[in-house]
Design goal:
heterodimer; A: 361 residues; mainly alpha; Rossmann fold; two-stranded antiparallel ribbon; B: 98 residues; alpha+beta; Alpha-Beta Plaits; 3 helices
């Protein structure tokens, strides 16, 4: 029977496993601490937002190295990137890894949603019969899992005492080496320029998905003539607006996140507006003499594009590590009416511009 | 980096604190430190309202209105009147979650 199970496991073993380790409840997969090409490729694709839903690992118990009854138990999410990040940092360690079913969402987000949560942890501890695999009663959770896991309830229901470990998997060896003591540096979440840059594709992609709508409106407005829609006209003025639209996306979804700490003011809306304003200013300095000679168009450009950049920058609050819901609500309360107002005024000005163009006014 | 000042809903009643240190253990922003065997707040403006401290304070000394700090989610909740929920479960993929 045991042989058969092993055979079955070998046949369908995931590519990142390197054998099995036996437990009182049957064999579990041993996890490699090295990444192979598909792991890197998967990371790149998930960072780019190519597949958010199905980049998953089967929930359950896994082994790293040759763990014993005394080895540590590390808990993670079943988002494969979370799992991969963890296993890569466990070189040379012998440990158990307990993967929760978070619907292939990372620890932090899943904890916020409650899927990396108290109930799921209790269920997974009992399903894997963890109490028969290890003789101690300690489990180590990623610190950011504390948003969804109530440690005292877990202990009451399972007997396992939860320790919230480091924020980052890379600090786990140091944390274990220091006898489960955390230095303040290990507990603090960081937000380096690299962290921010990695997140920008997920800001740019949704913005660019909406861009065709913006382009359609712009080309329609510029192309509209008493005799119909003329493409020559549409391109003549419209192209510059499209370029400035792209600049607004660049300013709000890339430059503002990247340069975040160096842009004055704490409000993301203001930060985004400043960067957007700068871009429009630089752009008009370069191209003003050539095409943007109309005062109305110039006003629209200075109204609309900084506001677009500001709105996009405000979206980045969802990805940062230091903004709270109360602050975002406050920004939106003030910002939304301004954005809607700006868009409306811009539209009215565009109509005035058209009427002037047609010689009506 | 700090976000807007004086907006956090974090409330801490130090008289209920037993000094277990959980809040210090879970806070990713260093808002709490242990001082004279009790938790103390360093700088409220550092709080990102994640809710980990309130979730893990056994003694009910901490409360905070936590939630998704994602603009899209909040706009949607303003429109629908519901609670802000993160769109990271949607196939479209949302910037809330990375």
């Amino acid at each position: 029977m045991q042989m058969q199970t092993l055979k079955f496991i070998k046949k369908t073993a995931p590519p990142w496993s390197n054998g099995t380790v036996s437990t009182p409840n049957g064999p579990v997969y041993k996890v490699s601490t090295d990444w192979t090409r598909p792991d890197y490729w998967g990371m790149i694709k998930s960072r780019a937002g190519a597949f958010r839903m199905n980049y998953a690992v089967e929930p359950g118990l896994y082994a790293v190295g040759e763990p014993t009854k005394d080895s540590d138990v590390l808990v993670t999410a079943n988002y494969k990137l979370s799992f991969d990040t963890l296993r890569r940092e466990l070189k040379g360690l012998n440990a158990w890894v307990l993967v929760l079913d978070t619907k292939s969402i990372n620890v932090w987000c899943a904890a916020g949603k409650g899927t990396f949560g108290t109930d799921e942890l209790i269920k997974r501890i009992s399903d894997t019969r963890l109490d028969t695999v290890v003789s101690h009663r300690r489990i180590i959770l990623p610190q950011l899992g504390a948003i969804g896991v109530n440690a005292s309830i877990v202990q009451k229901q399972t007997g396992f005492r939860v320790s919230f470990g480091p924020v980052r998997a890379q600090d786990i060896p140091a944390y274990i080496g220091a006898k489960y003591k955390k230095t303040p540096g290990i507990s603090r979440i960081r937000f380096t320029i690299l962290d921010r840059l990695v997140l920008t594709p997920l800001e740019i992609n949704p913005a660019m998905k909406k861009f065709p709508w913006f382009a359609a409106v712009v080309l329609f407005l510029f192309g509209l003539q008493p005799s119909g829609i003329l493409f020559a006209h549409a391109w003549h003025g419209g192209l510059l607006f499209l370029v400035m639209g792209l600049l607004a996306v660049f300013a709000g979804a890339f430059l503002t996140p990247a340069l975040l700490p160096f842009i004055p003011f704490r409000s993301f809306a203001i930060k985004g507006w400043i960067v957007g304003m700068l871009m429009v200013f630089l752009f008009t300095q370069v191209f003003n003499a050539i095409v943007l000679h109309d005062t109305i168009l110039l006003i629209v450009a200075f109204l609309l594009f900084p506001a677009m950049s500001s709105y996009l920058a405000l979206q980045f609050t969802g990805a940062t590590t230091f903004t709270g819901i109360s602050g975002v609500k406050k920004e939106l309360k003030i910002g939304l009416p301004i954005y809607i107002g700006t868009a409306s005024i811009s539209l009215v000005l565009m109509i005035v511009f058209k009427l002037k163009e047609w010689g009506v006014v | 980096m700090k976000y807007l000042a004086n907006v956090t809903t974090l409330q801490y009643a130090s008289d209920k604190c037993t000094g277990c240190g959980r809040c210090v253990e879970v806070c990713p922003q260093g808002v709490f430190v242990m001082r004279d065997k009790r938790a103390a707040i360093t700088d409220r403006d550092l709080c990102m309202e994640c809710g980990a401290c309130a979730m893990n304070c056994e003694f009910g000394a901490i409360s905070v209105n936590s939630g998704v700090g994602c603009a899209t989610a909040i706009i949607n909740s303003m429109l629908t009147g519901g609670e802000p929920t993160c769109g990271c479960g949607d196939a479209g993929g949302s910037s809330c979650c990375s």
